[in-house]
Structures are given as structure tokens and as C-alpha cells.
Amino acid sequence: MAEKKYNYTPKDFKSDQEVRWCPGCGDHAILNAIQKAMAELDIAKEDYAIISGIGCSSRFPYYMETYGFHGIHGRAGAIASGTKTANPKLSVWQITGDGDALAIGGNHFIHEIRRNIDLNIILFNNEIYGLTKGQYSPTTKYGHKTKTSPFGTVETPFKIGQLAIGAMGTFFARTIDGYVKESVEVYKEAEAHRGTSLVEVLENCVIYNDDTHADITAKATRKQRQIWLKNGEPMIFGENDDKGLVLNGFKLKVVTIGENGITKDDILVHDSHEEDPILHLALSNMKYPEMPVAFGVIRETKKMTYDAAVEAQIAEVQATAKIKNMNDLLTSGETWTVNN
Amino acid sequence: MAEKKYNYTPKDFKSDQEVRWCPGCGDHAILNAIQKAMAELDIAKEDYAIISGIGCSSRFPYYMETYGFHGIHGRAGAIASGTKTANPKLSVWQITGDGDALAIGGNHFIHEIRRNIDLNIILFNNEIYGLTKGQYSPTTKYGHKTKTSPFGTVETPFKIGQLAIGAMGTFFARTIDGYVKESVEVYKEAEAHRGTSLVEVLENCVIYNDDTHADITAKATRKQRQIWLKNGEPMIFGENDDKGLVLNGFKLKVVTIGENGITKDDILVHDSHEEDPILHLALSNMKYPEMPVAFGVIRETKKMTYDAAVEAQIAEVQATAKIKNMNDLLTSGETWTVNN
Amino acid sequence: MDKKSRIEKEDVVIRFAGDSGDGMQLTGTLFSDTSALFGNDVATFPDYPAEIRAPKGTVGGVSGFQVHISHNKVHTPGDYADVLIAMNPAALKANEIWVKPGGTIIADIDTFIEKNLKKAGYKTLDPFTEDHLESFNVIKAPISSLTQETLKPTGLDNKTILRSKNMFALGIVFNIYSRPLDYAHNFFATKFAKKPQIVEANDMVIKAGFNYAENTHALPSYRVEPAKIENGLYRNINGNKATAWGLIAAAEKANLPLFCGSYPITPATEILQYLSDRKDLGVKTFQAEDEIAGICTAIGASFAGHLAVTTTSGPGLALKTEAAGLAVITELPLVIVNVQRGGPSTGLPTKTEQADLMQALYARNGESPMPVIAASTPGNCFDYAFEAARIAIEHMTPVILLTDGFLANGTSPMLIKNMDTLPVITPKIAKEGKEYLPYKRSDDGLMTREWGVPGTPGLEHRIGGLEKMAVTGNVSYVPSNHQLMTDERQAKVEQVVAKVPDLQIEGNPDGGDLLVVGWGSTYGHLLDTVTEMRDEDVNVSLAHFNYINPLPKNVADVFSKFKKIVVCEINSGQFVNYLKINHQNFEYNQYNKVQGLPFTVAELKEEFTNILEDK
Amino acid sequence: MDKKSRIEKEDVVIRFAGDSGDGMQLTGTLFSDTSALFGNDVATFPDYPAEIRAPKGTVGGVSGFQVHISHNKVHTPGDYADVLIAMNPAALKANEIWVKPGGTIIADIDTFIEKNLKKAGYKTLDPFTEDHLESFNVIKAPISSLTQETLKPTGLDNKTILRSKNMFALGIVFNIYSRPLDYAHNFFATKFAKKPQIVEANDMVIKAGFNYAENTHALPSYRVEPAKIENGLYRNINGNKATAWGLIAAAEKANLPLFCGSYPITPATEILQYLSDRKDLGVKTFQAEDEIAGICTAIGASFAGHLAVTTTSGPGLALKTEAAGLAVITELPLVIVNVQRGGPSTGLPTKTEQADLMQALYARNGESPMPVIAASTPGNCFDYAFEAARIAIEHMTPVILLTDGFLANGTSPMLIKNMDTLPVITPKIAKEGKEYLPYKRSDDGLMTREWGVPGTPGLEHRIGGLEKMAVTGNVSYVPSNHQLMTDERQAKVEQVVAKVPDLQIEGNPDGGDLLVVGWGSTYGHLLDTVTEMRDEDVNVSLAHFNYINPLPKNVADVFSKFKKIVVCEINSGQFVNYLKINHQNFEYNQYNKVQGLPFTVAELKEEFTNILEDK
Ligand SMILES: Cc1ncc(C[n+]2csc(CCOP(=O)(O)OP(=O)(O)O)c2C)c(N)n1
Ligand SMILES: Cc1ncc(C[n+]2csc(CCOP(=O)(O)OP(=O)(O)O)c2C)c(N)n1
Ligand code: SF4
Ligand code: SF4
Ligand SMILES: [Mg+2]
Ligand SMILES: [Mg+2]
Questions:
Q1: Ranges under pLDDT 70 in chain C
Q2: Which positions in chain C touch D479 (Cβ < 8 Å)?
Q3: C264:A106 CB<8 A
């Protein structure tokens, strides 16, 4: 591995602003993990632009000693798209919540993904509107009682991975707020991917939606309920690494290695680079208790990014263009001289 | 079959307003087909509300002798959601274009589908902004030259079915403007479905994007390039009805009946009611020339609709509620009397 | 209770302040509800940080709740507090400037340790000396330790115990103002019906606080006599709830179902919440994906024949303006509630401001007139929400109702009117069987079109955002028709004036030296100031506006009776500009403040005195 | 060509009208470009239906294109036409009222058959008698049949042949005004380089039309002498292209890359299109998913250090107002171009109007001031787009540039300035190595903050929509800071006035009986009216505004010199209201028109005469 250019520590990415999230909020751990990831990534500090919308999660940029933009509610994706398209040299991170990205920001979300702009979207999914004190969001579980659904919601929530794939996504990963070590790897892979990298972080809002992910995230049962996918490796999980996934027609099925003659070789090997989104959709949709929930990088496919394509097209046109400046343009085509 | 209550003819659904689309525009045929479908459906004329945004396609309500609302650009979905939630007895049709629904209206589009509001969305997909005279839309083919992409677009288009499935869609169908007979059936099934029924109509804009679908829609080659799916029937197509679809691992494959020992029984039978969206996604994504393009009702699954759930919840609360009117509410809880 | 002499006081302002986690909002609410039940007139002003839980112990994390009680009518939560309860050093730091000279400060002295003092920004260990609080009546109460002491026998864990120290403070204040303890007891008994241990603990702590105060001669003791207000049944209500309920009342009186399409936003969110609670009354709430969908679903519901409402705050209103124009041209009834907050942009989301007036009046493309009205007390949010709905329905138009953070979160007692006493609202719904011309205007002078509701046989018709031909409603590009329709839409809004009550003068109806002009939530402060000054024989009166567009008929008449006019607003001068447009021929002084805070009577008095003395 | 005598005319207005499919826009453009190259001053006004192809043969489907040519300076496309070319009965029906008394009507008589006459709404078979057109010089030309005749030898199919009948009409007009045929020939030769047959056919038809006119003594013949305009190099340009190019020019002079985030909307779409064409100059265009993304991507690009622009029309501006407020509080440079059209709501999308002025000034939540300027001719859209960018960059603020449908689609010759003669624009970019305080204001009196561009080491900082602490830019809820920042944002915008030129009086600078006041695109009509009236010795002058916020310094000075003032606008009186706010002490008359059409000189003259005569 090449020598690193920068010797950052996570502290280099801490701003002087007081962190104002509730004690115990999952956002603290995500902040740590991203600061760690950035210290490990070899990118100059001044080349990061961290852009958010509005929400508890969206206060994130204030705590980072980088360029930061705390935007308006739902528009982080559009602002970030503009920043990255203007200057593709920047490493642009969009920090957003389930309300910010998927309710008011839904349109920018699907379009930035469709365009495959080279952004890292970190979506803090606490399944609630935190900042406005506890209304349901587009990811709140059906039937859940919140301040605006006193008798339970009657809305099907989005599945974030499914929506991203629906929007032609090239990168989807999932992680957990408090899983700092695993998260650091995921964030680094998100940055490495050229295109829109979407990371869903299961985040706990201790105040308004405590333990909404606890069934899945609890460390005690993680081995049974989580499967951490790695490209090129078999999809194995379980307390004793003895469970695996296999194909059963068009569906995925859990099997036990050692039972019914199943060996490790029968287990599906994760191919995050497969272009066809079908299997990635099936993986990202797996849900507890029938199946383990998938974590890590589920999809990562190569495609030209929008920002690079824009620059390439300009370069191509300019290579043969006759008009080099405004004087050329003004005097091009039909003109005439008045000489009284 | 029960006797019909209404004896409408398509003419009953024609308003007195002059139809102002370009001669040759695909919209004319869609208008005919919908008027036909409505004449066949047994719904009182006054119970239709046709709601559109802005675009050539969105002028549709003016030509219909029903209640109609020509909204603002992109907002047809939200207006229609309000109308239907307010009065679930109405048959609400949202008429929209690829720009109206998927560009500016993208957020309402994914959310109405997620909520599964009982609407019929007819999306006229001409892969262009017609009314504003020819700029690319979110469905325009990559690289296509338009007024705003003089050197070709650098944006991946949406696949409409994939986006709808991404948004938790319960109904997706595809048809072709000029295929009136087939379209009538599709529209009737869309109306019959309880939930958000999305119909993508391949529409030809003769002026700004002529023949964009011609490869697929031409009647001469339809047998080879189109597969019309019917629930419960094998997926067969081809000039001599001798081609079929089979599963090949996680992928679909075209086979020839009679070759390599393949019989009709080997061909996949279409199950539009399957809840798992995986196969429907594969079907809706099939593209010419590798595969035939799927038409008809690709997905139709049962789920509670939002509008019905809202009414049910109100009924449930009211059944045991102590507060029956405003006087009850005003005098409930802590009050006190001043009696000077 | 009769050990000490009671000072009879007309008016008391109490401010509870502590960390966001200290439960100050609950403490204040319990005190104000108890006082209201006791018969006082009450106004409250919660003042909490934008963060859900700002960092413990810092000034940024302080949450405050001010209560004003009186046996007279109360119009404001009060400028300055008679008593401040400071649960920690940060609460003292943030609030010491809000205590009246000579007022009482009760501090939980257990929390005044070095770490906390530093966090609060004090430089020494003696904040009282450091900040020159000698002139105040400072009571250093060991609230935390006494709470711990009190609950030790219960065996509760320390965290739970400390969580109830606010009840100790409440007990102290109950004692000072001779309040009964039963309301608070009942509250906990209901809330923790299944946890009798908690109920008992709270009772114990409140009583301990009460007793501590009783036993401590350092404490003053007041009794505020029940207020001399109009006879009738009352309830305490905040502006957001009053708004929600006013809308439901209007729907009932119009015999229409109520639909609210909305997206949460501070400080308007609660209106949506209060409406969501009312499934029992058949209210349909649609929590939309964004503000645009909020208003558009409401427009769709209005098309379907419902009383449709959308609720929001400044940035949300900005997002709704395109669709608001659609409601204007389709001439559908719609109530748009805008709870103003500090701007521009995200601005100061939890603070109050009146800076969306121009936005409400003019923020639409094209010539797009719309009635605008404003509530002026938490309680009358009910009346003006009702009135907004009445205008929308009877005049077939979208209407903007302006309230603000100060009204939304503040409370005042509301006289409960029996629904029979409220006016009936008559929707202009087209009937089956007659020819229906969607844009034919009524001949009752109001120029309204009829509402043709989907589902009604024979009224099938099309509406939309393109210019409409008069009468038929068909799309029309005819130039003279565009002029006609533009003029008619304007005239229709002007007709709303028919039922707009005349502008009232509070003070001297015959005129005088100075007319104070205000609108919306500044009413209480302006009235108190004018009343105080009149008591001092200054010839000043108040004309307060609730109807903004159209303005009442008699404005020029009222204005012309006064030598000077001063327009006071919590913005940089929006209403005064609007008055210049509509009543150009008067000279206006103005007093403006943009600090995220309401006026104070003191500053207003000073300003008015200056104007009268031509300074 | 010398067979007939030529009438020397100062001024001619020609109107081409036909079905949408008849190619009238092309015909008109070819005529106006030929005339411009010939040395005339030219102004054009396309007038097409909202539908892409409205039903053939109906009045709703008529597409018109008016050209005004003169050897003097031309300020308007003219009120009424000297010559009308009517390709079918509907074109006649729609346009007969626009022909000057005694003017010439050239009708393609082949199309005047029963079916078409009925479709056009005529009741008889003789429209000329039916509509009393006897006083006109009506020329019934068999244009269709002669075109068919001409092209018969080519073997082209009939549909293709008939498609070129507009060229026959063009040939007729070329003859009347003695235009050379080579420009049109070159145009087709380039366009159909690979289809020589088509080029030849067009040539044949134009010549046939030319000859038909030559041989028909019924036709008048005019020659318009080249205009006496300023020496220099010229090109014909419409307002949208001029706007686009002005922005590119500003980017070049500021040495910044140009970024445009936009969503198509009539009549602004072309600006985005013209910018998309300019990849050669490195322009980045982002066709966004909606208007909100349009402005937000632009804000993101501005954050990244680009000259950022967003372009739209009324309803689109309504959608951008929330984000516009973000640009205000973050104090980032941004140009918002709003091409006004008829409202409210979708309104009359292809028609012109000036009714977004209040929207531009006030449509944001909170106190959110922003400079607003307006172009007044198609050509000076270049200058004001440049100026908008200059203000945005030098004053670190979003700026709104107002144009409208009339300017956007109309053309006028533009004197081409060498780029060296344009002022350099100096962005206030913070430098590496110095301490960077994002909200420290400049000490050059302009109160700007410095632009800290991502990618620059050491300037890392955070901005956003919450209120900012002065100097540091940290989030602040401090009340007095909110007042300070509110005042500073206002003061910063007021500082723009430093470089705003004084308001000019066209007419008598010393004053007079009547001052006509206008803003934006009404300039040409107002100037022509004032000039004509002055020629008739009426003491009237014009003061036309391009700078709206802030207003020029000398407004009161100018206004006070005149006995009367009349403010003329294509809306219901928005600028006059704004003047009342800012210059309350003048009495204003007003003349307003909301018909989707520009003023006519005739109506203005009548109105001004009435005001002068106190009618
Ligand atoms: C235009 C606008 N609408 C609404 C709001 C109010 N608002 C602020 S944050 C938020 C939701 C936040 O939810 P999410 O994005 O999930 O963030 P969280 O607080 O849960 O991290 C809402 C509704 C706003 N600030 N601006
Ligand atoms: C708020 C707003 N933005 C933009 C427009 C301009 N506009 C009208 S229709 C349209 C696109 C239409 O495309 P599509 O929905 O595909 O309809 P089509 O004309 O192709 O049927 C646009 C951009 C508008 N009317 N309103
Ligand atoms: S409210 Fe929830 S999401 Fe917001 S800071 Fe507190 S714990 Fe975190
Ligand atoms: S422009 Fe295209 S979509 Fe629009 S009416 Fe014409 S053919 Fe149809
Ligand atoms: Mg959230
Ligand atoms: Mg389209």
C-alpha cells in the first residue's frame, strides 16, 4: 500500500462547536465513526464538503472541522449535487435523516441516485422526526403510535434499499450507529465508490423512538440476526458461523451448514458488483425474524458518474470548438456594421 | 355477470372542448381508450374525478365529460391524494406525463404509491417534455440530443416499473398509446385494483420525440418484441407463439418451445399477485433486443389502501369515543367556572 | 398557613428555569393550570432551546417557562419576573436579566458547584456577587439534596429521585402563592395510574417543597385573588390548540367534514397533532411528504367538498405559495394557517416574530389576492381560525390566518362558548338539477362562484390553473377576459369587508395625542402599555388589527382622530408599509424589534413617551 | 424593381399570421433578420398559442409574428400593423383588429373556403364584407395554388409542397420592402445542406412570391432606409439569448466558472437552452428535477465558488422562495432570473405581464432583503444580466433579475461591445493563510463577508440557514445579535446603491407637467409615447426604472420636479405601491393593464392626455 499523504487523527475532524445531541443519541457514535473514517481516508481536510438538510442528524456539519453547509429541510441532496457538479474534486458528503431525505427530500434523493452523482449519502434512519419532537416518518413502522399518529400510522414505510434500487442506485450499504468499527469500513467503501453511495445507518433516537432497531442491533443477538456481507465471500452468519444463504428458485433461503449435506461451498457468494439489481434487492429486503438482516456493502456497481460525464462532455466540445471566449461568441454568426 | 347499471358509450365521456393536441400525437388514442374503458366500467359518470398536472398530456381532463382538475406542474399526485382521501367513493384518475410525474412530481409519485392510495395513475411516457417544446425528461434515453442536451444527455433514465416497485408499488402495468383494445383492458384492471394502480403508456410525441418507442411498438414486429402478460397464463410470445420465458437461476431467459425438449409446461406462468417484487422487477425490466418487452398487468398485489385505512381508523375510534361533537370537546378535561 | 402575613398582590410573574431535562415546562404548566382552576387569569410563555436536549448545564440548554397570574385580565406573560426559580447556574445566568429589580430568586444551591458554574460561564464561585445580584432577594435552597433526603425512604434509585426535584420547586411556589396541591396530585394520579409509587413520590416531594417554604422565613408569601373576568365556563388553552379547535368548530357549523394536509414544522406542528387526536370528531389529517403536498392534498380535498386546511410556519409557507395561487384561480375554499417564527430562512425556529406579513400578502406569482387575518391572543386563535374558515367557505377563497410562536405556545384562559351561539356558516354548494356554470358569480354582492362537488350528478366540470373564461370557466386567452377576471378576483376579496367589524379604539374613541397601532400577537403588550399610560393620564389609545386584507372600513376615520400614530411590530416594518400603500395620507411613526422576543411594556412606554415628547 | 415608384417610409410594421403549422415564426424571423442585416433597426413580437399544435384552422391555433422595422431607433414591435399576411381565415379573424386603418391585408385566398371560414367563426362566405374590412387594402392572393403550381415540376409530394407556401408569402413581402433574397437562401442552404432539392424548392417559391408581387400592381411598395443608429457592430438578439450571454460575459469578467441550475418553464426555458449550447465556453448547466433543485444546486455551486444562476418564470419563482432565503442568510452570490408571464397560477403562460414584482421583493419568510433589477429591452437583457451578476458577486448576495415574455421572445439589434470595454468584476474570495471569519464584514463600506471556497486549506468553516453570530458565523440565538444581523443584511442591500446610476429623465430634465414612470419592458412603448407627445409640444417626460431595490438615490429629486406623476405597469399597480412605501410624499396617478399584452402607444397617449386635462 502506498504511503499516506496525510496523518490525520479523528481529532483533526472535530470542530470547536459543542455537540448538542441528547445524551445517548445514536448520532454521537456516527460522528465518531465518520471522523475515524476520514482520518483513515487519505483526503485533504479542505477537500471535504459536508452538506446537510434540517433535522437532529443534519446538525452534523457543525461538529466537523471541514467545509460544511447546514442547508434547508430536504434540500441537502440538491445542494450537494450542485457543489459536486461544480467542483468534482471535492469529496462531498450528504448527511441526512429519514425525514429529510425521504419525506420532503424524496425527489432530490431519487434523482441524485439516478444521475449517479459522486456523493456519499449518510442517511441516519431513526424512523422518526426527531427535531420536531416525534412525528412519524416515511420509515416509521406500520401501526406505530407517534405524536401525529395517536392511533397508529396507516402508512407502509419505505424500504430504503428498495427505493434506492428503484432509483437506479449503484451503491447501497447498511450499518448501525454504535458499530463504529464496522461503520468505519462501510464509510470508507462509500467514499471509494465513484457514484452515489447510499449508506443507511440504523440510528437510535433515545427520546422519541427508543429501541426501534433493538431487535436487530442488540450486540447479544447480533450473530443470529445480522449478516455482514463482504464481496467475494460466502453469505454466512449465525452464532457459530454455521448458517448460510442459498437460492431457492427466485427466493433466498437460510440453510445450516452441516445439515442435509450442505457444505460451505453450497452457500451463495456475495457479488456486490453484479449489475442486475434483482439479487441485491432480495438481500437488502431480508427481514428479521424469518431471515437475518443484511449489513455491509450490499451493492456496488460501476457506472459513469454524472459529474465526470459533464466534465468529459465539456472537454470534448472544447477540443474542437471555434468559440473560445465571449468576444468570439458575440461576433459569431450574423452580424452587421453600422457606419453612418 | 351482473347486469350493468349504466349504459354509457364512449361519447358520454367526451366534453364539448376542442381537442388541442397535435395531429398524430399519441395522446388522442389514449383519450379514446380511456373513454372506451369508462363506458365499459360500471361507474356513475359523476363519480369520476380526473386530475392532472401540467404538460401536453395533462390537458386531458378538459376533454372528459367528468369532474376534472387541471392542476399545477408535478402536483397531480398530491391533489389526487387529497381528493381520494377526502372522498374514497370517487374513482380518481391521475393523468400525468414523464416530466410531470417523475421530474417535478417525483416526490408525490413515490409517496402516493407507498401509501397505496386507491388511485389510477396513467403516465403518458413520451420520454420528453412536450409542452415546453422538447427538453429531455427523466425517461429520455441516455445520450439523446434535445433542446437542453445539444450534445446528448449524461443522465441515466428511470425505469418506471423499477421506480414504482422501489416505492412499494402494488400495481404496475404497461401499454401502448395506439393499442386501444389492449389498453382498454389494462385501464379496466387498473380501476379494478384497490390501491395505487400505475399504468405506463408508451406514447409518441410526433413533434419532439417521434418514434422513440418505434422499435418496440411497431405493429409489424410486435409479436417478436412484445410479450403481453396475463395472470395465470404462461409467458409466451413470438411470431408463432413459440417463444417463452423460463427461470435461469436469478435471471429470466427466452426459450423456444419445441427446441431442446422444451414444452409449454416448462414456461413460467405469470403470477401478478405474488407479493415478493423480485420477479415482477425482472419482468418489468426486460428490454429489447435481448428480451421481449413486457406489457399488460405485470404486478397486482393486495394490500389495505390508505384511504380505506383512514376511514376504518376513524370508525373504530368513533365507535367508543366519548366526545361526539365540539361542545363535548370544549367542556372536556379541566375547566372552571367564573361566577363573579 | 397563617403563620406569616400574606401580601395581597394584583399581579405576579413567575419564571421557572432549568436544564432542558429538568422538566420546567411541566412544572410551569402545573402551576399555571392550578392557578387557572383557582380562578386567576393566566398567560404563559414557554422559552425552550432549539435542540431537543442541548448540552446539560450550559446556557444554551436552559429551558424556561414564564407564568403571569392576576386577578385582573391578563394580556401578556409579563415582561419581567417577580420570582425566578433557577434550578442550576446556567438557568440563573440565562435569566437573571429577566427578574424585576428587587425580585426574588430561588436557586437550587446544590447545583452551584464549580463544574456547573464554569459550564454556565461564570468566572468565580460566587455568581451572585459576580453578577451583582445583591439587590435581589436571593434564596439559596438545597433543592436537590432535600429531594434526595425526602425520597430516601422510598428506595427509588438516585436518577429517578433527582428527576423529581422540579416538584420540590413547584411545592415552594405553591406555598408562596397559597395554591392547593390537589390539581398536581390528580395529574400524577391519572398519568401514573399504574405506578402508585411514582404518584406517592411526587406527592411527597411537592409537600416537602411546600413545607420547606412554609418553614423558611426568608420567603415572601403572596396570594393572588381570583381574576375579575367575564362570568362563564373557562379552560386554559394555548394558541395552537385553540387554532385546531376553531377549525373543527367551523367545520361543525358549516356541516362539512374537515381535512388537514400538513407537514410538521416548529412552531405549527402541534396544530396537526391536535387535529390528529380528533378522529372521534371525524377529522381527517394527512401528514404529507412535504409542505407542497400538504397544501395540494388540501386543495384536492377542497375540490372534493371538504373544509380544507393546511398548517405551517414561515419556510413552509414559502413552499406553498405556488399552490396557493392555484387555490386563488380555482376559487376554492382553503384555510392556510401560518404560525410565524424568526427568519429569514431557518432563522430562529423556536422564537417568535411577525415577519411573514408581506409573504402572506404578496408571495404569489401574478395578481393573486387573498384575505389575510391575524389572531391576537392564544384564546382568540379559536375565534380567528373559525373566522378564517368562515371567510374561505362563504367567499370561496383561500384565506391566510397568521399566528406566531408567542401565541402558539402561550396559554390564556378561554371562555367556552356553546356551539349554538356561534354563527352558522353556509357553504355555496351547487345543487343537482340546475344548470351549473362554474364561474358564474353570485348576485348577493359577494361575487362568489358556486362549489360543484364531485359525486353530484350533472355538475361535471373542469377547473384548473389556466386563466378561465368568466361564467363558463373554460380556458381563455382572450385579453379582455383576463383583465375582467383579474379585476373580479380582486373585487371578490374586497367584498370580504362586508362582514369585517370596524376597527375599535381602546382608550379614547374621540381621538387624542397618540394612536398606537398593532396587529396580531402584540395585542397584550400594547394594551397593557396603553392602559398603564392612560392611568398616568397620558392621552394615548390603541387600535389593534385582526383583519389585514381587506382592512376594516373605518381605518382612515380612526387614524384621522389622532395627532400622531405609531405602528409597532415584531419585524422591520411590514404592516406600516402596507398601511402606506392603503392609507398613504397619514404620517406614521414606527417601533420595530427583531430579536425573537415579544415587546416589553417598559420599552414600549419609553418609546411612546419619546414620540409624544418629539424626541 | 424600378417599374413601380417606391414610397419612402420611416417605419413599417408587418404581421405574419397563420396556423401554428404554417411556419409563421420562421417566416417572420427570416424577414426580420434580413432587415436587420440590411441595416434597419428591428423589433419583433412573436405571439403563439399555448398549445404545441392547436387545432388547425381555428382562431385558437393562430400563430403570429410581428416585425417592426425602421431607419430610426425602434423601441417596440409596434401597436398596429401596416401589413397583415393572413394565411387562412382564422388568421384574418384573429388579427384584423391589429391592422392600421387603411392598412394592407394580404390573404391566401385559396384557404378561404367554406369549411375554413366556419372553423374561423365567420358566418358568411365573405369575411371581408362580414367584418367591414372595406377600408383596408385587401389583396386576395392565391398563395397555396401558386405554390403548388410553382413546385409541380419538382415532383415533390403535395404535403411537402404546401409546407412551403409561407415562403411564397415571404417572397411577396420581400418584394414590397425591396429586400435581397440571399439571406433566406443562405439560411436554407445551411439548414438543408444535405437536401439540395429542398433548398432549390424554397428558392423557387420565394422567387415566385417575389415575382407575383412585382407583377401585381395592387401591391404597394415600400423601402425602409437603414436606421440612424449608433455606429458599431450589431447583431439581432432576443431577450433570452441576451440574458444568457450577459451571464456568460459576467463570468468571464469575474474569472469564475458559470453554473446554471434550472428547470424548463415558458418563457424562461430558452435561457437554459442557450446556456446548454455553450459547453465550448465551459458553462455547466444542470437541468434539475424541479425548480427547488434548480436553485439549490445553484446555491451548492455558489458555495463551491462558482458564479451560480437559476432561471425561471413566475410559478417557478414561487417554488424557489424558501431556498432564496437560504441564499440571503448564507450571503452567497446568486443570480435568480425571473421571466415574468401572465398569472396568477399557470395563468397565461405564453403571454407577458409584470405582475411578479411584489413576489420578487417580498416573497420570502422573515426579513429577507434582496436586490431586484429589471431589463427594459431585449438587447439590454445582456447588460442587466451582467449587472445582476456583478451585484451578486461584489455584494455577496442573491439578486433577482426581472425580464418578461415580451422581452424574452422579442428581438432588437444589440450593439456588440468588446469584452475589454466591460467592467472587471472582483469576487471577494478569501485567501489562504489569513485567519478566516466567515461573517466578518468588509471595511470598504459594502458590508460584505468574504467567500471561503471549499478546497482552500485553512478556511474550513460552516454556514447554514440558522441565524449566525456576527463575525464568527456560529449559530446564535442571542436576541440582540438577531437584531444586529437583520439590520446588517438590510444595510448591505442598501449599499448596492453605491454603484446604481441616477434615474434619468428622458424629455425635460428640468421638470414639467407630467412625469411618466415605468419599469422593465414597458420602456419602448412609454418612450415612443412620450416622444410623440413631446413632438406635439406636450410637456411630458419619462423616468424609467431598471433598479428597483435599492432605488436610485435621486428619485425624490426627479419626482419633485413634475406637477403630476403617472406610474404605468402591466399589472394592477405593484410598482406604484412600492413607490408609496419608499416615497410616500408624492401623489401618484397610475395606469394599469392586465391583458397579457404590452401597452399600445395609442392607449397611453389617450391616458396621459386625460391626466393632463384632469379627466
Ligand atoms: C421547510 C421545512 N419544513 C419542515 C421543517 C421542520 N422539520 C425540521 S427537521 C424535520 C424532520 C426531521 O426528521 P429527520 O430528517 O428524520 O431528522 P432527525 O431529527 O430524526 O434526525 C422537520 C419536519 C423545516 N425545518 N423546514
Ligand atoms: C412550476 C412549473 N414548472 C415548470 C413548468 C413548465 N412545464 C410545463 S409542462 C412541463 C413538462 C411537461 O412534460 P411531461 O409531463 O412529460 O408532459 P408532456 O408535455 O410530454 O405530455 C414543464 C417543464 C410549469 N408549468 N410549472
Ligand atoms: S431527539 Fe432523538 S435524534 Fe434528536 S438528538 Fe435527541 S435522541 Fe438524537
Ligand atoms: S408536442 Fe408532442 S406530446 Fe405535445 S401534443 Fe404535440 S405530439 Fe403530443
Ligand atoms: Mg429521523
Ligand atoms: Mg412527456
A1: 1-10, 50-54, 216-228
A2: 595-597
A3: no
Chain A residues whose CB is inside 8 A of the D252 CB are 325-326
Burial of C508 (0-12, 13-18, 19+ CB in 10 A): middle
Q: Does B77 touch chain D (CB under 8 A)?
A: no
Asked if residue B308 belongs to a domain, the reply is no
Q: Which residue has the cell 444586529?
A: D484
How open is the CA angle A40-A43-A44, to the nearest 5 degrees?
120
The helix or strand, by DSSP H or E, that contains position D89, with its residue range, turns out to be helix D89-95
**C505 vs A177: CA distance, rounded Å:** 60
Prediction pTM value: 0.90
A54 lines ligand 3 (CB under 6 A): no
Confidence (pLDDT) at C53: 63
Residue B320, Cβ neighbours under 10 Å: how many? 7
Report the number of distinct structural domains present in chain B: 1
Determine which of C437-451, D152-166, D503-517 has the lowest per-residue pLDDT on average.
D152-166
pLDDT range class, residue D1, cuts 50, 70, 90: very low
Q: Which residues contact C6 (CB under 8 A, 6 or more apart)?
A: C178, C221, C222, C223
Residue B92 domain flag = yes
ipTM for the complex shown: 0.92
What is the CATH architecture of C512-612?
A: 3-Layer(aba) Sandwich (3.40)
Report domain extents, chain D: 7-223, 235-421, 512-612
d(C-alpha D457, C-alpha B92), whole Å: 57
Instruction: Provide the domain limits for residue B142.
Output: 10-212
D7-223 matches D512-612 in fold: no
Residues of chain A scoring pLDDT < 70? 1-2, 340
* CATH code of the domain covering residue A71: 3.40.50.970
Measured distance CA(C528)–CA(A280) in Å, rounded: 67
Task: Report how far residue D266's alpha carbon sits from residue B55's, in angstroms, rounded to the nearest whole number.
Answer: 11
The rounded distance, in Å, linking the Cα atoms of C272 and B195 is 25
More confident residue, D390 or C74: D390
Contacts of B309 in chain A (CB under 8 A): 154
Euclidean distance between CA atoms A24 and A210, whole angstroms: 10
Q: How far apart are CA C503 and CA C554, in angstroms?
A: 6
Look at residue A84 and tell me if it is in a domain: yes
Question: Is domain D7-223 annotated with CATH 3.40.920.10?
Answer: yes
CA dist list (Å): C25 to B101, C47, C98, C187: 45, 9, 17, 14
Cα–Cα distances (Å) from A299 to A30, A34, A281, in that order, read: 21, 20, 9
Considering only the beta carbons, identify the residue of C362, C577, C595 that sits closest to D363.
Answer: C362
Gap between the Cα atoms of D126 and C25, Å rounded:
84
Residues within 6 Å of ligand 4 by CB:
B 21-22, 25, 27, 56, 126, 130, 205-208; D 52-53
Nearest CA in chain B to D263: B104
CATH superfamily, domain at C235-421: Thiamin diphosphate (ThDP)-binding fold, Pyr/PP domains (3.40.50.970)
Give me the amino acid identity at D117.
L
A63-95 per-position pLDDT tens digit: 999 999 999 999 999 999 999 999 999 999 999
CA-nearest residue to A54 within chain D is D465
| C-alpha D243 to ligand 4 mean position (Å) | 28
Residue A223 class from Cβ within 10 Å (0-12 exposed, 13-18 middle, 19+ buried)?
middle
The residue contributing the CA closest to ligand 2 atom 23 is: D264
Q: How far apart are CA D326 and CA D322, in angstroms?
A: 7
Q: Using CA atoms, how far apart are residues B143 and B156, in angstroms rounded to an integer?
A: 9
Task: Identify whether B184 is part of a domain.
Answer: yes
Residue to substitute in B19, B20, B22 for testing ligand 4 pocket (most ligand atoms within 8 angstroms of CB): B22
Task: State CA C538 to chain mean position distance.
Answer: 30
